[in-house]
């Protein structure tokens, strides 16, 4: 399904929904972004994620995204939910001591995403960061992200939380693109060296 760089076994992929002007959420939160996503594009993204999850060894989440996800995914009943609920998860937090995912296995809690990823590099299987901009920003700054998997919604939000919050600059290589209704799906490899 995807081309991939051949120089390492474990890839770190960050998947984000973003606005055309680069925001992962607007002044009113993620609802500002998702209001522009048409049902056809949402269904296509779910189908993409079902295939993506087949190669994912672990999902990495920040605390805020974990708290949102744990309210939805454990009770959802679709093919993506079955994958999300059974794949091991790690939550990066300085305040949590546990991350329950009832009735499924709890997520592991760790404090430093950069050290964690560096220790997992040779383990095989992809590591998928969903949402979790604080984790994405830390991994980008450390040069530990390998791929950006972006769903670009047909909206300009003008303000909110940016995918790219500033330096460092990243060299990107287009890995693939397609459009789903009015949403653009774009994948980029990042130069880690």
From TrEMBL:
GO terms for biological process: riboflavin biosynthetic process. InterPro entries: DHFR-like_dom_sf, RibDG_C. It comes from Arthrobacter jiangjiafuii. This is Dihydrofolate reductase family protein. GO terms for molecular function: 5-amino-6-(5-phosphoribosylamino)uracil reductase activity. Gene3D superfamilies: Dihydrofolate Reductase, subunit A (3.40.430.10). Residues 12-185 form the Bacterial bifunctional deaminase-reductase C-terminal domain.
């Amino acid at each position: 399904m995807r081309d991939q760089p051949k120089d390492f076994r474990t890839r770190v992929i960050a998947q984000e929904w973003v606005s055309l002007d680069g925001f992962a959420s607007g002044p009113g939160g993620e609802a500002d972004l998702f209001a522009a996503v048409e049902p056809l594009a949402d269904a296509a993204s779910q189908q993409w994620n079902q295939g993506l999850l087949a190669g994912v060894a672990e999902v990495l989440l920040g605390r805020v995204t974990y708290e949102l996800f744990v309210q939805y995914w454990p009770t959802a009943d679709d093919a993506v939910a079955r994958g999300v609920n059974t794949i091991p998860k790690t939550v990066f937090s300085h305040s949590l001591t546990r991350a329950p995912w009832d009735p499924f296995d709890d997520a592991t809690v760790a404090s430093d995403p950069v050290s964690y990823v560096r220790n997992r590099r040779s383990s095989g299987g992809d590591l998928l960061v969903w949402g979790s901009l604080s984790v994405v920003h830390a991994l980008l700054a450390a040069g530990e992200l390998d791929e950006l998997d972006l769903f670009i919604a047909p909206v300009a939000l003008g303000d909110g939380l940016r995918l790219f919050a500033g330096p460092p600059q990243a060299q990107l290589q287009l890995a693939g693109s397609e459009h789903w209704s009015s949403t653009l799906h774009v994948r980029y490899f990042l130069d880690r060296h």
